[in-house]
């Protein structure tokens, strides 16, 4: 009974400020990298996993440390005020639709609608950016496109880039964008406000270029926006 009450209080804990609760939906390369980094900064991490009890996810939770936990995606999303979508694009629309009420929550969308075929990135042929399509599934969530042009290894260790790395931020919500900019800076990356949510149409294509270079085994670059003086 006492444990159940503690769980309810913990699930209802406030979401904002330093040490805030962050739901990381997806436990793969990006989810693990960001979950561990944000935990290291003192945030309470709740992973959203389709299989929170499997060994792989339990091990990630243990590596993450702090107050980290894993729940099914909907419970993780409802536990926190900030969400990170770190799932394949193919699963993103149905996942967002199944997360429950996201009104007022900041949703950081890292997904990229990327399909690789015959060693090249294919145009996804979407009518808008992926994040705009996700926003239409949860109109009152505060979507911010971020981190999608950064490799998960750089998220885990920005110093490995050998220089500054930009994180373009697209959002229609200025306060949410400012909040995410602070999170980006705290990780040791450089936030770059590139405009409203529909500018993600271009940053998602930056990610396509990045992945296309990667799969071709061509020269590799990290994106850095030098501010114009
Ligand atoms: N890898 C990068 O460097 C990078 C960089 C920038 C952006 N991105 C984008 O970030 C997103 C996540 O990339 P990732 O590399 O972390 O992917 P990943 O390693 O394949 O992990 C994706 C995670 O999403 C969850 N998931 C939910 N529904 C799924 C489904 N239908 N099929 C497979 N997994 C599902 C899984 O966690 P559970 O099994 O626990 O549910 C899985 O571990 C993608 O949209 C990708 O384009 C990746």
What distinguishing features does this structure have?
229 residues; binds NADP nicotinamide-adenine-dinucleotide phosphate; 10 strands; six-stranded parallel β-sheet; Rossmann fold; single chain; two-stranded antiparallel sheet; alpha/beta; 39% helix; 9 helices; disordered N terminus
Topology of helices and strands:
Elements: H1 2-11, E1 21-25, H2 29-40, E2 44-48, H3 55-64, E3 69-71, H4 73-79, E4 82-85, H5 89-97, E5 106-109, E6 115-117, E7 120-122, H6 130-137, E8 142-145, H7 152-156, E9 166-170, H8 174-186, E10 190-195, H9 200-215
Parallel strand pairs: 1-2, 1-4, 2-3, 4-5, 5-8, 9-10
Antiparallel strand pairs: 6-7
Helix pairs in contact: 5-6
Description:
By secondary structure, the protein is an alpha/beta fold. The chain has a single domain (15-215), classed as NAD(P)-binding Rossmann-like Domain (Rossmann fold, 3-Layer(aba) Sandwich), CATH 3.40.50. It has nine helices and ten strands. The chain has helices at 2-11, 29-40, 55-64, 73-79, 89-97, 130-137, 152-156, 174-186, 200-215, and strands at 21-25, 44-48, 69-71, 82-85, 106-109, 115-117, 120-122, 142-145, 166-170, 190-195. It has a six-stranded parallel beta sheet, with helices on both faces. Strands 6-7 form a two-stranded antiparallel ribbon. A two-stranded parallel ribbon has the order 9-10. Helix 2 (29-40) links the parallel strand 1 and strand 2. It is globular, with a radius of gyration of 17 Å. Residues 1-16 have low confidence and may be disordered. NADP nicotinamide-adenine-dinucleotide phosphate binds at residues 26-31, 49-51, 57, 86-89, 91, 95, 110-112, 114, 148, 150-152.
């Amino acid at each position: 009974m006492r444990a159940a009450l503690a769980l309810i209080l913990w699930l209802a804990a406030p979401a904002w400020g330093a040490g805030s609760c962050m739901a990381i939906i997806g436990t793969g390369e990006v989810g693990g990298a960001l979950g561990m980094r944000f935990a290291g900064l003192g945030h309470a991490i709740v992973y959203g996993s389709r299989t929170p009890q499997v060994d792989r996810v339990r091990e990630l939770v243990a590596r993450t440390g702090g107050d980290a936990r894993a729940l099914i995606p909907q419970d993780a999303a409802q536990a926190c005020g900030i969400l990170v979508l770190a799932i394949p694009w193919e699963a993103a629309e149905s996942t967002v639709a199944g997360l429950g009420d996201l009104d007022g929550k900041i949703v950081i969308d890292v997904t990229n609608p990327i399909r690789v075929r015959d060693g090249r990135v294919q145009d996804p042929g979407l009518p808008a950016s992926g994040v705009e399509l996700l926003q239409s599934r949860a109109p009152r969530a505060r979507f911010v496109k971020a981190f999608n042009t950064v490799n998960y290894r750089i998220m885990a260790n920005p110093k490995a880039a050998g220089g500054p790395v930009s994180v373009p931020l697209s959002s229609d919500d200025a306060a949410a964008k400012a909040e995410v900019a602070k999170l980006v800076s705290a990780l040791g990356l450089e936030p770059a406000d590139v405009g409203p949510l529909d500018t993600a149409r271009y940053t998602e294509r930056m990610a396509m270029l990045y992945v296309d270079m990667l799969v071709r085994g061509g020269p590799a670059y990290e994106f850095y926006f030098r501010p114009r003086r």
